[in-house]
Amino acid sequence: MPVSRRQFLASAAALAAASAASWQTWRHLNRLPPVSVRRPGLPPGHLLRDGMLAEGTDRLPSHRCGTLILGSGAAALSALWYLVRNGHRDILLAEGLERNGNNAGFYDAELAAPTGAHYLALPPPESAYVRLMLDDLGIMQNGVFNETDLVYAPQERLWYRGKWQESLLPQQDADSRRFFALTGRLKTARSRDGRKIFAIPIALSSQDEEWRRLDRLTFAQWLAREGYRSPSLLWYLDYCCRDDYGRGIADVSAFAGLHYFCARGEHADTVLTWPDGLAHVSEALRRHCGLRPLAAPPQEDEWRFGRPVSWDASAIRIEERQGRVSVWLRHNQSGETLCADAHRVVCAMPLSVAAHIVADAPRYGLRPSESAPWLVGNFVLNRFPQERGGSSLAWDNVVYGSPHLGYVAAGNQLIRAAKPPRTVFTSYTAPNHDTPRNVRRRLLDADADELLALAAADLAAVYGSGFWRHVERISLTVRGHGMAVPRPGYLDNPIPRSRPPLLFAHSDMSGYSVFEEAAYWGAEAAKRILEAV
């Protein structure tokens, strides 16, 4: 069954204490490996939120330009890709506060790992933009995915009752068989309006009220109503929701809960992945589009690039006026600020950020939204730790009953006949024992040791104190606004008014954070630009 808040806190405290104890033991006996903590977007993000960076921007001269894309996450790069694919190349992309956004990667010499999104499920036919993109990138050819891009076996395992098992579902029982029989039917089911009940992107899902009323309940309420009582099934469903939405079954919409299992079709269990996660796709899109960095924009009144270029800058103010959009850009390193007066703008940043910097934000339907914070830990190891019970390391490794989300061995993609000498294990946790706001505040205020205790909890539970003997370096990433939470009612959240010259593109417009949704909104924004040109 889903754990109560008190049980969660007790479990989290015990695991954190065990991790901290093993860490402190190793710390006192040996030299402390380097620990770095990244909080992408801070402090500029908070200054931006509070309007501190936009002061005095009215006095800056403006530079006219063609198409400006704000951000470099999945939606921004999808918009870039679609524009370039259709012959539109006079584009300036402002990187935003972090290159590739939540798709950013971690790199250490020959090693790579994700610091955010780490896989892409095989896209169903409805995800037409993603399939076309993957074909352009050579990841898919004639409907067939490259074997080297598919996750290698073993794909997943669960630490359950002191040993590993292959399936993340703790055990099969009557409830789990009934649940997966239902979702199996719903994967291809269509409603009275002819649409698939659950499709991805979600904008293509059925609008039939018979199914949309699921959005009035939490997933936990629906499961209880339908008579699902199995503790192992409920734990598994709770884990899946925390993994994809940042909150558990007691928080997310029943529609979102079922959508997770039904939208991607029959091959949802197979995924595409790379050592650096979705940073691989983001970097491939940059190369494919011929995106080139600018040391600094030209000083002329009118910018004509003639090709896609990027500048390491963030938008600090956006104002639509007289058929154009004025965007004040601030260089992320030097603080240099200038005004770009663009014919067309794709605002591909989180909607909660846009709500703070777009002039007259309510006019566009922009408003702050709820998001779940994340903590990602990358542990560089000088050798692979000893596995218990003869079990083979899997790509995804999960601990039953843990408040954390396990760890990924992204380098599993590189293992052939023999293991490499060094590797990276990447842990994920999305604490949901308190409100997102309170969790976010604690993660942002915590010191390195406190964050490490959380990030290493599942690794310590599996490998014990001996794990630390192999740790060479640790990099922790706090994502204060990691992903949108699809709480009940999210299907009725208004979509921002989006039309030239100012268009919005972000997975937030779907109410939850996955690559397919971001790619859809990015490509749709680009399509509207092409229609207007």
Map the helices and strands:
Elements lengths: L4 H25 L5 E4 L5 H6 L12 E9 L3 H12 L5 E4 L10 E4 L2 E4 L5 E2 L6 H9 L3 E2 L2 E2 L10 E5 L2 E3 L8 H13 L22 H4 L6 H7 L5 H15 L8 H9 L8 E2 L6 H11 L2 E2 L15 E3 L1 E9 L2 E8 L5 E11 L3 H7 L13 E11 L14 E4 L7 E2 L14 E7 L6 H10 L2 H8 L1 H7 L7 E14 L17 E3 L10 H18 L1
Parallel strand pairs: 1-21, 2-3, 2-16, 3-13, 9-18, 12-13, 16-22
Antiparallel strand pairs: 4-5, 6-11, 7-8, 9-10, 14-15, 15-16, 17-20, 17-21, 18-19, 19-20
Helix pairs in contact: 1-13, 1-14, 3-10, 3-15, 7-9
What gap, in angstroms, lies between the N and C termini? 55 Å
User: Main beta sheet: strand number and arrangement?
Assistant: 8 strands, mixed
Mean pLDDT: 90
How many strand elements? 22
Order of neighbouring strands in the sheet with most strands: 1-21-17-20-19-18-9-10
Structural class: alpha/beta
Helix share, percent: 25-40%
Radius of gyration: 23 Å
Global outline: globular
Low-confidence stretches: 1-13
Count of separate DSSP helical elements: 15
Strand content: 15-25%
Q: Which descriptors apply to this entry?
A:
alpha/beta, 8-stranded mixed β-sheet, disordered N terminus
Summarize the structure in words:
The protein is α/β, with parallel strands linked by helices and 533 residues long. It has 15 helices and 22 strands. It has helices at 5-29, 44-49, 74-85, 128-136, 174-186, 209-212, 219-225, 231-245, 254-262, 279-289, 351-357, 436-445, 448-455, 457-463, 515-532, and strands spanning 35-38, 62-70, 91-94, 105-108, 111-114, 120-121, 140-141, 144-145, 156-160, 163-165, 271-272, 292-293, 309-311, 313-321, 324-331, 337-347, 371-381, 396-399, 407-408, 423-429, 471-484, 502-504. The strands form 5 sheets. It has an 8-stranded mixed β-sheet. Strands 2, 3, 12, 13, 14, 15, 16 and 22 form an 8-stranded mixed β-sheet that branches. It has a two-stranded antiparallel ribbon with strand order 4-5. Strand 14 and strand 15 form a beta hairpin. Helix 1 crosses helix 13 (448-455) and helix 3 (74-85) runs parallel beside helix 10 (279-289). The radius of gyration is 23 Å and the shape is globular. It starts with a helix and ends with a helix.
